[in-house]
Design a protein that fits this description.
The complex is a heterodimer of chains A (293) and B (222). Chain A is mainly alpha-helical. Chain A has one domain. Chain A contains 13 helices and 1 strand. The longest helix of chain A has 24 residues. The radius of gyration of chain A is 19 Å and the shape is globular. The mean pLDDT of chain A is 96. With 222 residues, chain B is α+β, with helices and mostly antiparallel strands. In chain B, strand 9 and strand 10 form a beta hairpin. The longest helix of chain B has 17 residues. The chains are: A mainly alpha (293), B alpha+beta (222).
């Protein structure tokens, strides 16, 4: 039905539909289900996302490895102190993205979007856009379908694996999916959504994957926090009318080529980036010796 | 171009932290458990490559044990599987192993029984929560558990495949892929289907003469 952003935009224009509507129709047709079945399935995903984005805000969640944790609470408390420089929405969004990251690192239940390591960005983006826009749960479910189309295009035409494309392919694509989704929630056109998706990927093009001790924790939760900010910035740029000079399909292709040209040490192997700093090596050594506190 | 479901992108719903080291490990062990006979009192996990090196940090140990307990990758009990195994009197051991030419996330899962010989399955978690089973008790195989799968061992003779495929077709089950290998006079038959394997199809297949082992696996949802 579609393999490129170009096809999706054409379908939206021909049938006068939103990206989410195209996605729901495609999914129902592909799996021989009703539209209601598909929407109900996404509603259950939304409930899991709501839970993971909020459960780390009040009491600290410590990771399975015990290396990281409790940061969502800190960010949330800081927000409540009214001292935040970047403002309420940005702080809340960071806190909720980190909450999901912490749930993931503690072996709690999350929904990969597009991966487990980047799973904090999309839930936080749509839930905080909802606060600002006063959207309904139905709007959130639709936004998830829009996000999924961006992720699907990235999966088909590039990669969403950190081992293949670095963090740009995980947190970059998650931010790109989220930006397109919240643009649709705010009433933007399909073209606005793809502009936002392009900006989010361009903003982090080349971002490497360098997990300390090889674990999905650090810097993953930081990049979930910056990823959700990237989504909001990119969405606002597009809604303000800024046009992407490069079509989304070409941005994806560029991201894929950059990913493939990254040395293997910078693609989830923990053999480069911050993973090989002295401090990171010490953390890894203690962890694998079983002496992590 | 392969078509993806929306829920391949927004999903799987899973216990963290890693789709390949955690969700895939649950699925791998659950598939192995479904291939084994019930009543095992001990399971030994032989871990190769990245599984051996990082299993503690990614909770691969808990994920594998959860799988042999029959949990899904999204089950909150995955985190507590070691304790649950203990209270079920299931003995668990982990050992490191080096396989030649194996995927980095490979495990050999060996089931032990009091009154019958042990049984093992080898498989790999190949990313995104997907797995591939590569060996069952010494027989090389290749299937993913994504499709309903039929595994048979029978005394090799003419007409077996046509009998099996006739039963499937009469039960409106479409064959997606099929592979038969032989050693001595025993054939190992692995067939993936598009449709769930119905009870009536199972019963008819089990009635075929000279089938020694028959396993039917419907997919692990993830």
């Amino acid at each position: 039905m579609y393999n490129k952003a170009f096809d999706v935009i054409k379908l939206c224009e021909q049938e006068n539909k939103k990206i989410s509507e195209i996605a729901i129709l495609k999914e129902a047709k592909m799996r021989n289900l009703t539209e209601k079945d598909v929407i109900d399935e996404m509603k259950s995903v939304l409930e899991i996302m709501k839970k993971s984005a909020t459960s780390g805000l009040e009491s600290p969640i410590i990771s399975h490895s015990k290396i990281t944790g409790g940061n969502a609470v800190k960010i949330n408390n800081y927000l409540n102190s009214n001292k935040s420089l970047s403002g309420d929405l940005i702080n809340k969004a960071m806190a909720m993205a980190v909450s999901t990251s912490e749930v993931n690192a503690s072996m709690g239940v999350i929904c990969a979007a597009p991966t487990a390591g980047a799973s904090g960005i999309l839930p936080s983006s749509i839930l905080n856009a909802k606060e600002k826009l006063g959207s309904s749960d139905e709007d959130l479910v639709n936004a998830l379908f829009t996000a999924a189309v961006i992720g699907e295009l990235a999966t088909k035409n590039a990669t969403v694996s950190g081992a293949e494309g670095g963090c740009q392919a995980e947190c970059g694509v998650a931010a790109s999916m989220s930006a397109a989704a919240i643009v649709e929630m705010a009433g933007g056109s399909p073209i606005d959504s793809f502009n936002a998706a392009s900006f989010a990927l361009i903003n982090v093009m080349g971002l490497i994957c360098d997990p300390v001790a090889g674990l999905v924790e650090y810097p993953c939760f930081l990049r979930n926090a910056s990823g959700v900010v990237n989504a909001f910035v990119s969405a606002d740029l597009a809604l303000a009318g800024v046009q992407s000079l490069i079509p989304f399909d070409e941005v994806l292709e560029a991201m894929y080529k950059v990913g493939k040209s990254l040395p293997e040490t910078l693609r989830e192997t923990a053999l480069g980036g911050i993973a090989t700093t002295p401090a990171a090596k010490e953390i890894a050594r203690r962890f694998y010796n079983g002496t992590t506190e | 171009m392969k078509d993806y479901s929306i829920f391949d992108v927004i999903g799987p719903v899973m216990v963290g932290p890693s789709s390949s080291h955690t969700a895939g490990a649950v699925k791998l062990a659950k598939t192995a458990m479904e291939l084994s006979e019930k009543g095992f009192y001990k399971v030994i996990f032989y871990l190769h490559g990245s599984f051996a090196k990082t299993y503690k940090g990614h909770g691969t140990d808990k994920a594998l044990v959860a799988g042999v307990l029959g949990f899904e990758p999204s089950d909150e009990r995955v985190k507590h599987s070691l304790d649950i195994a203990k209270s079920n009197n299931l003995t668990i051991e982990f050992k490191e192993i080096e396989f030649e030419y194996a995927h980095p996330n490979t495990a050999k899962i060996e089931f032990h029984y009091l009154n019958s010989p042990s049984f093992f399955v080898i498989g790999s978690s190949i990313g995104g929560g997907n797995v591939v089973i590569t060996n069952i008790n010494g027989d090389d195989v290749e299937f993913t558990g994504q499709y309903p799968t039929i595994l048979l061992k029978y005394i090799d003779k003419k007409g077996m495949i046509s009998q099996i495929s006739t039963i499937l077709s009469n039960n409106e089950i479409n064959i997606a892929s099929m592979k038969v290998t032989r050693s001595n006079n025993l054939a190992t038959f692995v067939c993936e289907t598009d449709n769930l394997i119905t009870d009536s199809a199972k019963e008819e297949i089990l009635k075929i003469k000279d089938i020694e082992i028959a396993k039917f696996i419907n997919p692990v949802r993830s």
